[in-house]
Amino acid sequence: MSVSLRQLEAFVAVAAEAHFGRAATRIHVTQPVISQEIKRLERTLGATLFDRSTRSVALTTAGRELLPYAERTLAAVRELTVHAEKLSSTPHGEVRIAASPSVLDRFLADLVRRAERELPDITLTDVPVPTGEVEQALVAGHADLGLGRFLTAPDGYVVATIGREPVFALLSDTHRLARRATLNLAELADPDEEADDDRGGYDDRGGSGKTGHDRSDSGRAAYDRVSASRTGHDRSPAAGDRDGTSGAGYDRGGAGRVRRDRGGYSEGSGLPLLLWPRERHAAYFDHLVGICRERGLDPLLLAGPPQLVGARSYLISDGRAFTLVPESTAQRPVPGTRAIPLSRPATVPLEILMPRDPSPPARLVANLAMTKD
């Protein structure tokens, strides 16, 4: 048995109008067409639906009993169509977001919370990536959007700035400067000041202060286990930089001072700056080192993992290094450390990476990310 929607429409229209001509007008067909559809439906159902006369058309007993079924069927089809149109006009599905460590815990968490409220038909999935690998995640097809800092746009992608975050210095909470309301980075430049301060620092008498640096062989070994090379570049012109200049704002290749004197520490470098290896994310690395240098600190650099506030955070809490973090990271408690605003403020960008022509769900999520809650 095969009943078409056109036949049911003709049946309902003739029943409502009690006239074939008016029924044809109602559903925008000719009278011969509606007459043919009614005859086909009657043959299929094996029942006569209308009593026909030259003056009137009336439902038969079978017609009256079958009419509600036809009406409900057409109503269900209309509901189906409306719902399908709603689905096609309302983006839905999954949007995968690659996020670097400093973005993952706060901004992405807030974005997921907002999306649950404002975009309930879209599911956000976080794709954690190490510092410097947001772009690779999108290009490899592992994510639809990317969140990070100092992002670059591969072919077919665009980068937009969401905002900027203040930079904080993260120190041991027992460091002599840890109780300052703001920190002048230049004050970290002289390790001898810490040696003379009874609140912690170097102890040149063979031991260590309350926190400070351990100048014993075991103290130096701890540094060497993290970075035997002290991160990277020496002070002479590097290969590809024979004129002694640097395109990244570094002094003759400068990833910081790396001379090994005074027991493995750079002369006058003070408390080392803990960062990831420069090759992992050069632009971000250069910016943080530049913040130090612009404020009178030419830091010795200590290589750590991509997520600084993680497995190597003990180097900070032990007073053997400091690092620079965005405000969102500074607001996450790290045992044994204190985050201090800089006396001369600095910022880092928060950016989003997306395809030039994102999917409708990804576009909605990107727009949400770029609007304030």
From TrEMBL:
It holds the Pfam family LysR_substrate. InterPro entries: LysR_HTH_N, LysR_subst-bd, WH-like_DNA-bd_sf, WH_DNA-bd_sf. Residues 189-263 are annotated as: Disordered. Keywords: DNA-binding, Transcription, Transcription regulation. Residues 3-60 form the HTH lysR-type domain. The keyword DNA-binding applies. Residues 246-256 have a biased composition (Gly residues). Residues 198-218, 231-244 have a biased composition (Basic and acidic residues). PANTHER family: HTH-TYPE TRANSCRIPTIONAL REGULATOR CYNR, TRANSCRIPTIONAL DUAL REGULATOR HCAR-RELATED. Belongs to the LysR transcriptional regulatory family. This is LysR family transcriptional regulator. It comes from Paractinoplanes bogorensis.
